[in-house]
Amino acid sequence: MAKKSGVNVTAAYTAEAVPLVARDAAADRDEPGGNVASAVAVRHLSKSFGPIAALKDVSLDIGSGEIRGICGENGAGKSTLVKILTGVYRPDAGNVLIGGAAVSVATPRQAQELGIAIVAQELSLCPDLSVEDNIWLGSLHVPFLHKRPDLRRRAAEALALLGAGHIDLDTPVTNLSMGERQLVEIARLLTRDARVLILDEPTATLTDIEIERIFAALLAVKREGRSVVYITHRLAEVYAICDRVSVLRNGELVTTTSLKGLDRSALIELMLGRPSDEMYPEEARARGAPALVVEGMSLPGIVNDFSMKVHRGEILCIAGQVGSGAAEIVAALAGLVHDAGGRVTVNGRPLKLGSSVRAAQRGIMFVSGDRAAEGVFRRLSVLQNLVATRLRDHSLLGFLRGGALRKAAAHLAARVGIDRRRLNARAEELSGGNQQKLAFGRSIERQAGAILLMNEPTRGIDVGARAEIYRLMRGFCEDGYALVMASSDLEEIVGVGDVVITLYRGRRIGHYRRSEVSMHRIVADITHPRETTP
Amino acid sequence: MTDQVLPTALRYPWRVPLPHSRRGRTLVAIRVAALLALIAIAAATPGFFTAVSLFSLLNTTSFIGCVAVGMTFITLSGNIMSFALSVTLSTSGIVFMAVLPWGLPIAFLVALAFGAGLTGIQGVAVGYFRANPVIVSMAALALITGGATLITQGQGVYPQGDAAAALKGRLLGIPMPLAAFILTVVLAQIVLSFTRFGRQLYMVGSNWRAALAAGLDPARIVLGAYIVAGLCTALAGILMAARYSSGDLELGLGYDYSAISAVLVGGTAISGGEGSAIRSLVGAFLIAVCQVLLLLHGFSTQIQYLAIGVIVLFVIMLQTLADAD
After folding, report:
1. Per-residue pLDDT tens for B55-81?
2. How far is the C-alpha of B99 from the C-alpha of B93, rounded, in Å?
3. What residues of chain A score a pLDDT lower than 50?
């Protein structure tokens, strides 16, 4: 059963661009506007914010029972499109059509009544209520006098349809994993007769096994004749699950095409509007002295007896799924986990963990994977973000030297590729990729032997900016620094790691040099007990 | 030169960055309209622009203003407000009066140190122990009130002689409270705009976790903000005690509410990381103008409280709408 309905993510990653899903014939119809009934369509949609055109004359048809991928760089117009479909924004021009008739989607509630639903990341569930209560909470389909057994049966049916029959209706949602919560969210939308489900980067916080479950659920939704709009930066997922893909660039629809015969680099080229550069940089040329040595590190309840050694000039990648402890190890090295234990040596001198101030003094810089919460100071200017960690170098008796600071910021902006005319813009006005460059710029050019720690360096960052971040990472190492990153993105791990350490449930499994590493091995390691996977 | 690192709002006070969205622009329009209405009402009110009412306006505003500047540091650091500043003010005044027999300079410094110590302890609880700032300040309010009542037996301190006369005079022709207030604003703004501590305060207030991840020491910076708040408040306490020639727990009663009102009306973000001392100055004056206008139109004190409550609520709602934009 699992083999038939499930999608093997592992295989999708490894077998480049060869989709494993047996597609139904409907998937390959390519004619725009299709004569097959489209579930939802948009015609000539345009939307501007001030002088910026976010969407220009976009027309799309999404068929019943279709899973449609939407791809594009950040700022291509994907989220504007979604917000128009879900009634958050109103278009300046153009229509939304349902069943061929133009409809007004002026409010999110109207969108719901029309059967267009967005799968929220988790926020819309009440953690302390049971699964059943969450499914029916706020539903318009629950009459004041209702038959509880009937509702219970329908909730169970919806979950079973999604292959999530094992979830107990009485469990509080807080006990569920992220993936299970998403399944509950989808079940909740199904009970509300959603005809079109929109998923925006649904897998960012999920483990591979959970991703497979979500994919199986989406295929079940598709078999029901409902449609799915699937937005992601992870191209492997587009190939794994989508029937067709629509590519947006600078607010315009580039094309809607079947994925058959469209290889990965062609898709990237469509998104970027130019041939894709080499995505991943060269491997480390020179390997210097050990910069960071970790022995017997333990994080209570998360990581046990973890050891590693990073040399100057190399990128060490800790590969692990969400929850494996990889991200926590990196955060602990940055001094952000207070009960971390173990012997850590930085450039030959021991470092006591547990204080980010102490770590920073020793040249350990940390770039968080959670940009909004820990990465940048969103309300402060680009300039202030860039010089945040080096105020001491540019001040006299506690007073800042403005000219020197500005010069330093301009230099750093040039170094990481941020337009210096944007120095006074607020950080939150920048795209995700540029915000990551800010966090990066803050961390470079420290004392010799500095160590850069990164968690999920390219989460939520589009293809174009991603290659740039990788180049910056490599450039940083060539200056003689060491870089440690935790990642759950397999392509990235294989692409940039000079040394890869695999982690499963807080235990170190494997250690590979770049020449030995392969996706198969990493996947086998980080999903260790293969036998038990469903 | 140095002006290049100032926040944009300071560098181009005349160039207000207009938001792109319609809602954002509407909100700006509401603020401008409210300001114009206030000026129009003031101009139409007989007696408002006479020297006497303007002078009393400036004087009363000065005490609240000093507390508001101190409160600005707490708000900027991301810790909303402290309910304990009014008792910090009154107890600093009592300490000042009690130590006055040893001489004015010593009394002045001891009172300042006392105020800074009181808020500094709260700063330690909030910064190093990550305790909820509002709860901490409420506990501090109870503790300080209780302790002070116990020690003073509820009596005010009335020193003999007039050692504090120097604080009742004028500085360059400006009444002492106003001069002290202006000096406080200027110093506070210099600290906020031109020092490392000021810059780090904005960082911590805007995002504690990011500051921690960047290797700053947010706890120490929050402690610093509380100490500055204590210094400003103690200064107000000293001046008030000198003015009324007594130290009393009743001094400055309700000033923490007036101060946070001034901070918010001035446009400092309640969520921290955005605002300035100058904004609090503007806020304090706006509120004072409203109060004087109501007074001149014959409204009672109760109505004045009501009006200020409405204004603060209105400002908070505007701010939330603008943030959500």
Report:
1. 777 887 899 999 999 999 999 999 999
2. 10
3. 1-35, 530-534
Residues 494-513 of A with CB under 8 A from B: none
A406-439 burial code (b ≥16 CB/10 A, e <16):
bebbeebbebbbbeeebbbbbbeebbbbbbbbbb
Report helix, strand or coil for A478: helix
Query: Six-digit token pair at B158?
Result: 């009335």
pLDDT higher than threshold 80 for residue B53: no
Residue A123: its pLDDT value, please? 60
Are B197 and A356 inside 8 Å of each other by CB? no
* Chain A residue nearest residue B208, CA to CA: A374
Q: Which pLDDT score is estimated for B238?
A: 94
Model confidence at B15: pLDDT above 70:
no
Contact (Cβ atoms closer than 8 angstroms) between residue B237 and residue B92: yes
In A349-504, DSSP assigns E strands to 349-351, 364-367, 395-396, 399-400, 451-455, 482-487, 499-504
Distance in Å, alpha carbon of A416 to nearest chain B alpha carbon: 18
Mutating which of B22, B199, B201 best tests the A interface, going by the most A Cβ atoms within 10 A? B199
Q: Which amino acid is at B146?
A: G
Evaluated on CA atoms B263, B267, B269, B273, the torsion sign reads negative
Judge whether B153 and B38 are in contact, CB under 8 Å.
no
Band of pLDDT at residue B286, cut at 50, 70 and 90 = confident
Q: Do residue B210 and residue A360 have CB atoms under 8 angstroms apart?
A: no
Average pLDDT over residues B240-258: 88
Contact in structure between A294 and A333 (CB atoms under 8 Å): yes
Q: Is A408 on the interface with B (CB under 8 A)?
A: no
Taking CA atoms, A386 is separated from A244, A439, A482, B212, in Å, by 41, 7, 20, 16
Q: Are A375 and B2 within 8 A, CB to CB?
A: no
pLDDT tens column, B151-176: 988 788 887 777 777 777 777 778 88
**Contact: A380, B206; criterion CB under 8 Å:** yes
> From the list A357, A375, A442, which residue is nearest B217 (CB)?
A357
For helices B218-244 and B85-99, angle between their N-to-C axes, nearest 10 degrees: 60
